[in-house]
Each structure stands twice: as structure tokens, then as C-alpha cells.
């Protein structure tokens, strides 16, 4: 039986074998490269959209990979939860957060059936997740389900 390119096993293999996977695109100071600059700009954009009244709270990154954007939320004092289908991605995120002194919770789970109660998070976001699905309705429905009624959702599709 052949594997689908988007299944968990192939994602785990990719995360194990990709050298860049061990690199967190977060930095405390001045960005050192274009990718760090891009993630910093995402953070600035999200912060401006959230506004001063939502400077902290609970945040969930669905399909977190190494958790680069969550690192900005964690550094700003948010209560971060990172979820990915790939156990290898979660291991890399945990290691990166530990090395940088950032705190978060890490879960292996499926974005089609999130393991959280309704109305759990102030912010839910995904970057580079939605483009892996032909039909994103269930993925979005789950993210909205765990979002608090006054919460904010960010969905960024990587071209």
C-alpha cells in the first residue's frame, strides 16, 4: 500500500530528515535572515489586528510544525498550545522552546478532531495547514469550535 504525501508518517519522515526543521524561525533581537523577518512581520501584523485589549490570553497554533510564530506569542506572555499531527514536529517544537526558554503546551493531534473543549482559546491560528486540504470546511469548523465567542482566528495559506 502506497503512502499519501500528506499522511502523518510522511510528515514525520520529512521532519526527521529536513535539516531546516531543527531551526526555529524566531529571534529575540534583530532578524538575521529573510525567513525570520517574515515571521516577525506576521507577529507584528497579528499583534496589530488583535489590538491592545488582546495583549495576552490563550492561543492555539494548529499544524504548528516547529512553532515559530507561537514563539512570538509565548515571548509576549501568551498561554500557548501547539498542536501537530506529526510527533516529530512536536518533538522539534518542544526542543526549540526549551532551548530558547519559552513555555508552551505541546500536543500530537488531528486538526479534523481537535482534542479541546468548545470555546477554549482566545486566538486560534494556522499557517501552512489549510493548503494541504481539498476541502477545508471541517478543518475550519474545528478551529472555530475551540475558539471563544469573542476570539480571533487567523488562517494563513502558504502559496
Give the helices and strands, then pairings.
Blueprint: H1 8-17, H2 34-50, E1 58-62, H3 68-75, E2 79-84, H4 87-100, E3 105-108, E4 121-127, H5 137-145, E5 147-156
Parallel strand pairs: 1-2, 1-4, 2-3, 4-5
What does this entry look like structurally?
Helix 1 crosses helix 4 and helix 2 crosses helix 3 (68-75). With 159 residues, this protein is an alpha/beta fold. The longest helix is centred in the first third of the chain and has 17 residues, at 34-50. It is globular, with a radius of gyration of 15 Å. It has a five-stranded parallel sheet with strand order 3-2-1-4-5. It has helices spanning 8-17, 34-50, 68-75, 87-100, 137-145; strands at 58-62, 79-84, 105-108, 121-127, 147-156. It is built from five helices and five strands. The model is unreliable at 1-5 (pLDDT under 50). The two termini are 30 Å apart. Helix content is 36%, strand content 20%.
